[in-house]
């Protein structure tokens, strides 16, 4: 039973990241639970998209704030590890920041909890001090 859940959730996570990489934001937002808890970095980080957001509208606000600050130039998935309702995804991201023109590459880890096939919790971990420098200009 747990193996079936893990396999189903692995397929859901694969589809979620494939949609994101394809720019299919409607599918990304549709994969979120209505009450999803979305956390990026730290509340004190100097990035407009950082902090906690609740609900699909909060996730949309996160992506709007991210797009207002930078353009993602490359997003490479490293590993996807799934166990039951939990998943961890490693990635390397390269972005160009609008105000500074600075390009930056950083590693990140996403931790997701799924509920009934939808993302109920999402938390991303990355070097917030490096992001603060790129956003400070």
Secondary-structure blueprint:
Blueprint: H1 2-21, H2 25-30, E1 32-40, E2 51-54, H3 55-69, E3 70-83, E4 86-97, E5 103-115, E6 118-125, H4 128-135
Parallel strand pairs: 1-6
Antiparallel strand pairs: 1-2, 3-4, 4-5, 5-6
Describe the protein in words:
This protein has 137 residues and is an alpha+beta fold. The protein has a single domain (2-135), classed as Roll (Nuclear Transport Factor 2, Chain: A), CATH 3.10.450.50. It contains four helices and six strands; from the N terminus they run H-H-E-E-H-E-E-E-E-H. It has a six-stranded mixed beta sheet. It starts with a helix and ends with a helix.
Overall average residue pLDDT = 93
Strands, count = 6
Stated plainly, the CATH topology is called Nuclear Transport Factor 2, Chain: A
CATH second-level architecture: Roll
- Report the sheet-strand fraction: 35-45%
Q: How many separate structural domains?
A: 1
Q: What is the ordering of alpha helices and beta strands?
A: HHEEHEEEEH
Quaternary state reads single chain
Q: Outline the biggest β-sheet.
A: 6 strands, mixed
What is the topology, as strand order, of the major beta sheet? 2-1-6-5-4-3
Low-confidence stretches: none
Structural class: alpha+beta
